């Protein structure tokens, strides 16, 4: 794990230096390469987590072929970790599927919030896009759609496929390595937590967003404890985002000069970082 | 760790098939419906708050909630401290890889000390 971490970190820093300093796409660069640069931080995060997930699935009795299948067709870190842990406690098939459904229900929200950027795409594209959409590549794509007017569905689908490739290969390698590698799971999983934290910071635009963020945190804890399942994630997200919408609507119509709409100084409020795409 | 589960490969296969359907339905239908018809403006205004709410909920799940769905911040002290570091790094650098890498390193180091 030590050597692996170092290699991974070094690679990450190199990628950062080589790939991510330029915000604007070089027109001479092929599309697949510039899109790969966008996807690379996510791809690299997927390596340790995918390895850990493959190891866990192996421990839960999944063979390598099935591990590849589950990585391609379910393609969700949370779901795969849940499958592995529920298999080790010998949970019945239907209860695992039901818990998966609660966990995956949040994808309905991802799809709904991305739909404004994918208007008019052909049916086949929507099918392929939803097939490999998950939290992490959604996060990358949502940020790109919101900040880069040239970002299109084709590139977004490429990001999904790059992340799918890295995820599946890491899972398969993890499954092959099996128990030979000891990984501190909760620490490795923090790579995803850090990714989400980064996304939150980049989404913060006004004081109102900070408020909604805090509210959502409390609601999430409350509903997850109440429902004893990840259904709480969906309920809290629906409520918190609706309150955000309602408050913003109320404030902009009643007191447009309210302090709650003041911009928060930081990355998200910079003009080059987030141009609100009202043109869509 | 030896295999502790007694399921056969066929049962695992069916789990994947069923898991695929429960994951695909919420991925596919909302996206299909909302890209094919005109979306009211208020819906988009509402959905604008979805990412920040969802990501916060996911972070809270990772940092404050344990596997039995109970509040357990004290079992996640390294993640808790590393989260603060990630927020600062993300705010300062705007770089996704820096946030993830430094955050992972911080969590790893703090976990060795705590």
UniProtKB/TrEMBL annotation, chain A:
Location, primary (coarse class): membrane
Recorded superkingdom: Bacteria
The UniProt record lists the keyword Signal: no
Pfam families, alphabetized: AzlC
Membrane-spanning ranges: 45-75, 87-109, 183-201, 208-226, 232-251
One Gene Ontology CC term in the entry: plasma membrane
Keywords: Cell membrane, Membrane, Transmembrane, Transmembrane helix, Transport
Membrane topology, as annotated: Multi-pass membrane protein
Subcellular location: Cell membrane
Annotated InterPro entries: Brnchd-chn_aa_trnsp_permease
GO biological process: one example: L-valine transmembrane transport
Family label: Belongs to the AzlC family.
This protein's name: Branched-chain amino acid ABC transporter permease
UniProtKB/TrEMBL annotation, chain B:
One Pfam family linked to the record: AzlD
Family matches, as InterPro entries: Brnchd-chn_aa_trnsp_AzlD (IPR008407)
Annotated TM spans: 12-34, 71-91, 96-113
Keywords noted in UniProt: Membrane, Transmembrane, Transmembrane helix
Protein name: Branched-chain amino acid transporter
Lineage: Bacteria, Bacillati, Bacillota, Bacilli, Lactobacillales
